[in-house]
Amino acid sequence: MKSKSNPLRLNDLFFPSVAALVSVLINYGGTFAIVFQAAKVANLSPELTASWVFSLSIGIGITGVWLSYKYKEPIITAWSTPGVAFLASALVFTPYSEAIGAYMISAIGFIILGVSGMFDRLIQYIPPGISAGLLAGILLQFGIAAFGGAEIDPAFVIMLFFTYIVLKRLLPRFAIVGILVVGSLSLVLFNKVDFTGVGLDFALPVFTMPEFSISSLLGVALPLFIITLTGQYIPGMLILRSDGFKTSANPILTVTGIGSLIMAPFGSHAFNIAAISSAICTGPDAHENQSKRYIAGIICGTLYIVVGIFGVTLVTLFLILPSTFIATLAGLALLGTIGSSLADAMKDPAGREVALITFLATAANVTLLGVGGAFWGLVAGMLAHLVINFRTFRKPLSYQLTLKDKNEKRVAP
């Protein structure tokens, strides 16, 4: 008999809303400055920069809302952060119209990957211990940064930390809400933010006719595709899996690829499943009932759309927030996920060393050949798994688990 999910109630919206707000705040306040840096390097006009912000935010919002509603899972989409970091140097040598063409080619690559189903088959070969070690390694730097800000503003960071641990003792479900409220009030009361020049003006998309060339294909499209795949899609899907969600990667790749293709002529370089900000909305802090965490995905997407409508003017509001607030909020919000990931990584004694290698290699955050630490951590973990567990590596995880069950039944008395 099929079990029916509990009906949606008004109080089901509170914690998903907070998780979504924290996720959006961390995304814009933490990494979006790189977009403005890349726009400055490319000598883009204010109108083209606003169009870039508009197309990214609206595209991310629509795809996130649709995927979360369709699959009833918190599928958080975001811009490619490693992709825009790469563009901050690549746009120096690439005409903007050719960069637009390269964005479109990269998006087509993701559509093909999603339709073919190859990426989903690849994910099946990654053992749970490696997935958990990879996630813990990615998030570790954010946990450390939560306390690193004490060098800059010790009183503020200590206040947020004290608020967190007191609420964890008294009202654990409200710990993240508490540091968000206390931190925001403190910023306003002690004049730590300057709202001068912050206004609300509607953004307008500006169409740029794409141009195509071999140099932009090899110099922009291909690196952007590889960097986004390894730096966003792989960790993003593993984060979704680690919290027990089963949506195939195929529709996510296809939908975000189509969205990126449509928005590319307006400046959007690439959007994809989120990694870091996704972990805030997929865990129990978003909702104790896993089946209702998709609400966080819908609210998150809606907030992105609102930001996109106002473009640069509303993004500026996020950028004026002190880095210590963003870092401490992100780190404390991710503590639960970091802890559970480490526990999952170390759970199986047989795979503990491989998981530890993955964790440490990922946490080292080494960038080689323009590809970030998450990919090389995965490579190190899979290489260790290949050498140490050669026989089981040849079959996907689903087969390994089935074989293990059969062997246990065979030896049972």
TrEMBL record:
Q: Name one Pfam family in it.
A: BenE
The record's annotation in InterPro entries points to: Benzoate_Transporter
> Which segments cross the bilayer?
13-36, 48-69, 75-93, 100-119, 174-193, 213-240, 252-274, 294-318, 325-343, 355-388
**What GO molecular function terms would the record report?**
benzoate transmembrane transporter activity
Q: According to its record, what are the GO cellular component terms?
A: plasma membrane
Keywords (A to Z) from UniProt: Membrane, Transmembrane, Transmembrane helix
Name of protein: Benzoate transporter
Record the organism.
Siminovitchia terrae
Q: Per UniProt, what is the name of the gene that codes for the protein in this document? A: benE
